[in-house]
Design a protein that fits this description.
The structure holds two protein chains of two kinds. By secondary structure, chain A is mainly alpha-helical. Chain A contains three helices and no strands. In chain A, helix 1 runs antiparallel to helix 2. In chain B, helix 14 packs antiparallel against helix 15, helix 16 runs antiparallel to helix 21 and helix 17 packs parallel to helix 21. Chain B is mainly α. Chain B contains 28 helices and two strands. Classes of the chains: A mainly alpha, B mainly alpha. The interface between A and B is small, with 13 and 10 residues.
Chain lengths: 103, 689
């Protein structure tokens, strides 16, 4: 009984998630949405790691996925902190009004 | 130094005492109360007096030819080699040295003795004045300077004291500095003295250049060694330059104008500095350098003439003055004229003798006048006095004694000294004698005018002053009494031979007078014979009594007469009353010209120095800095800005990418990613082929 879902299905899913994420990051103005889109991208990567882990029968990919989740949590915490501080100073959450990186 | 007895070896202590207390007063005097000031200042002068008496006693114990004790503390200006006028090499050395001989001994006794009495008097007179410690500090500084002056063993040291007393005189004349007239008078005294000092200083230089020494003890030998002829023009020049200094300090024509104004100072100062001691410094200096004068007969003749004319001139002004201190001031000028008359006719000892008696009676006159002023709450105008003899009897009697002394009534001190001078003048020149003789009559007249206007007749005192009249405190009266005693007996020190005396004082001073150079001509007439001397004395007594009677007639008997006489004389009276307009003349000739010069220099200063110099330099600096600023802006800064502008231009496309928006960066990343991926896909496609 070999009724498993083929690997490339997962890859398509992952690609779809990744593309949604990238489009979200590029098009949405609210930085919180952008942060959420980044989570989508990360999870697309996680799906890739998981599916290749299963394909090769190795847990290395799963270990990496756990690291990425941890990293995403930390990143969300720091990112939200930055957003809070930024909002207090500039009273805005719109990414196109945050052009101070060039200075 | 140690070979000498104690007091003679330590004469340098005599000026030291007042110096220490003067320093104490000026540094910490503000914190002392009046009795501490009294104790310190009078005590130090008293100590000087004791040391002076000690030195005197030890000096007369020496044989007469050894009575010259020099003590050099150190070489103040060490040897400077220079070429004398005759080309020989000499050393200019100024000792910090003291010399005591009969002349300086007499002077220190007068200065410390009269000075001490006046210090005591001042404790009463100044008791209610502000700046008490300052007054005594200056007074002690004056004592120090005066003692340096009379104890100096060389001309430069004498000059130090000379300038010191001038400074103290300035400080004390302007003691009431909040009064403009007082500060003006101080400046006037200082500046007029400065003119004389310039002459004196030139004289010192010339002495040094001609004789190669400035020590008094070496001047005589240097003159002998130099074989100077009688009337040597350079010696005459020295004598005249010294005399210029003397006319300034001792208030002779033409530099006498400061002394009457100096009466702005407190009365004890007038007594001590402007009557008894400082103004006699010129007489002392001429006597001290008599060896030079005796070789310069023309200078001597000028000294005698100036002295006699000053005596007469000042006495004539004194006749019409109404301020009690001004009368005494002109009287001082007149009496100083007598002293120079004495020096000029070669009777230096007589001059010093008159200096001493004058110190007693003129000091007393001023102190008594101060007592009168004190009693009248500051009134100095004799027209507002009168009938005071009963109210302040001690002042009256002591002042009367001093007046008898200055008028020259036998046997008071002034009689003996003045007739000694007149006798010597008669030997020399009948005209000089006649001037002095006539002046003696005027002296008697104006002094008794003062007595009668102040103490006799009817009272013209203001009503609100009248009931304040009081005799002065003991501290003021005791000096008056002592000086009155000296005014009577001071002359007896030199009781003339014709009255069976031995002229002890004159004999005591004689070693100081150079006799080697100039053999005195034997008198051929007049007081050469005892009878002549008696006749002269009787003659002057007659004139003096006449002057007193005249004063009595005008100011007691017929008090309306002086006004009428003044009116009938009209222009001449006004001329004398305004002191011959000498002050106005000097103002027009010198003072205003000096002011003009000052104004011209001021204009020069504002236009040339300020306008061209300072402003020009400022303009130049600004111009150069503008230039430098232009260079900085356009060349230095410009090159840097040009570089930055070039970098800016080239960075333009890079700057376009960096817009600071996170999302545009992200877009670039995605575009880049797609680009890479596309490239690898393209490569893979070809690889498969």
């Amino acid at each position: 009984m070999n009724a498993t879902i083929p690997t490339d299905y997962y890859l398509w899913l992952s690609l779809a998630l990744f593309t949604i994420g990238v489009i979200g990051v590029l098009t949405r103005r609210n930085v919180i949405i952008i942060l959420m889109s980044i989570e989508l991208i990360l999870n697309a990567v996680n799906i890739n790691l998981m599916v290749f882990s299963r394909m090769w029968g190795s847990v290395d990919g799963q270990v990496f996925a756990i690291f990425v989740i941890t990293d995403a949590a930390a990143e969300a915490a720091v990112g939200l902190g930055i957003i809070l501080a930024f909002f207090r100073n500039r009273e805005t959450l719109l990414a196109d009004e945050m052009d101070m990186l060039k200075w | 130094m140690n070979a000498h007895p104690f007091f003679l070896g330590h004469v340098w202590l005599i000026p030291l005492f007042p110096l220490l207390t003067a320093a104490a007063m000026l540094f910490i005097g503000r914190r002392l109360n009046n009795s501490a000031v009294n104790a310190l200042c009078c005590g130090s002068v008293f100590a000087s007096f004791i040391f002076s008496v000690g030195a005197f006693l030890q000096l007369i114990a020496l044989p007469s030819e050894e009575r010259l004790v020099t003590s050099v503390l150190f070489e103040w200006i060490p040897a400077l080699p220079f070429h004398m006028l005759n080309g020989r090499l000499a050393n200019f050395v100024a000792d910090f040295g003291f010399q005591i001989d009969p002349l300086s001994c007499v002077m220190i006794l007068i200065v410390t003795g009269v000075g001490f009495l006046i210090h005591v008097y001042s404790t009463g007179y100044m008791a209610h004045e502000g700046g008490y410690y300052r007054f005594f500090g200056y007074l002690n500084l004056f004592m120090f300077s005066m003692l340096i002056l009379v104890l100096a063993n060389n001309l430069v040291m004498l000059f130090v004291g000379w300038e010191g007393v001038g400074t103290c005189s300035y400080l004390l004349i302007g003691f009431y500095f909040h009064r403009k007239s007082a500060s003006d008078a101080g400046k006037k005294a200082f500046i007029v003295n400065r003119i004389g000092d310039a002459g004196f200083l030139l004289g010192i230089f010339l002495t040094s250049a001609l004789l190669g020494t400035i020590r008094f003890a070496e001047i005589g030998p240097a003159l002998a060694a130099g074989h100077f002829a009688m009337g040597d023009p350079l010696l005459t020049a020295i004598a005249l330059l010294f005399f210029v200094g003397a006319t300034g300090k001792s208030a002779q024509i033409p530099l006498y104008v400061w002394l009457p104004d100096a009466m702005e100072g407190p009365t004890p100062v007038s007594a001590l500095i402007h009557a008894a001691t400082m103004v006699t410094a010129g007489v002392y200096m001429v006597t001290r350098t008599n060896a030079i004068y005796q070789l310069a007969p023309k200078a001597m003749a000028l000294v005698a003439l100036v002295g006699a004319v000053t005596a007469l001139f000042a006495a004539s002004i004194g006749v019409v003055q109404t301020d009690i201190k001004k009368v005494l001031a002109y009287s001082t000028v007149s009496q100083l004229g007598y002293m120079f008359l004495a020096c000029g006719v070669g009777a230096f000892t007589a001059g010093i003798f008159h200096l001493m008696t004058h110190a007693f009676f003129k000091g007393l006159l001023f102190l008594a006048a101060g007592s009168v002023i004190h009693a009248l709450s500051g009134e100095q105008d004799m027209r507002k006095m009168g009938a005071l003899s009963k109210k302040i009897p001690v002042t009256y009697w002591t002042m009367l004694i001093a007046t008898l002394a200055i008028a020259g009534i036998f046997p008071f001190a002034g009689f003996l000294s003045k007739d000694l001078i007149l006798g010597k003048a008669y030997e020399k020149d009948a005209l000089l004698w006649a001037i002095g003789y006539f002046t003696a009559g005027m002296t008697a007249f104006y002094m008794f005018r003062l007595i009668f206007m102040t103490f006799h007749g009817t009272s013209r005192v203001d009503h609100d002053v009248e009931h304040h009249i009081h005799e002065s405190p003991k501290s003021m009266l005791i000096p008056l009494l002592i000086l009155a005693g000296l005014s009577i007996a001071g002359g007896w020190l030199s009781w003339p031979e014709i009255f069976g005396g031995n002229s002890r004082f004159v004999r005591f001073l004689e070693p100081v007078i150079a006799t080697t150079q100039l053999a005195r001509p034997e008198p051929t007439h007049g007081p050469g014979s005892p009878h002549g001397e008696i006749y002269l004395m009787l003659l002057s007594e007659g004139l003096v009594v006449l002057g007193i009677c005249f004063a009595w007639y005008l100011y007691i008997k017929r008090t309306e007469l002086p006004g009428k006489i003044a009116k009938s004389l009209g222009g001449f009276y006004r001329l004398v009353y305004h002191k011959y307009y000498v002050d106005q003349l000097y103002d027009a000739l010198f003072v205003n010209r000096a002011k003009d010069l000052g104004l011209a220099l001021g204009v020069f200063d504002t236009t040339v120095i300020n306008g061209v110099g300072v402003n020009g330099a400022g303009w130049l600096t600004r111009f150069i800095s503008n230039l430098s600023m232009w260079w900085d802006t356009w060349i230095v800064d410009g090159s840097i800005r040009l570089g930055s502008r070039i970098v800016w231009l080239f960075s333009y496309p890079v700057r376009l990418i960096q817009d600071g928006l996170v999302q545009s960066y992200m877009l670039l990343i995605v575009v880049g990613l797609i680009g890479f991926l596309g490239y690898y896909f393209y490569l893979g496609h070809h690889a498969v082929r």
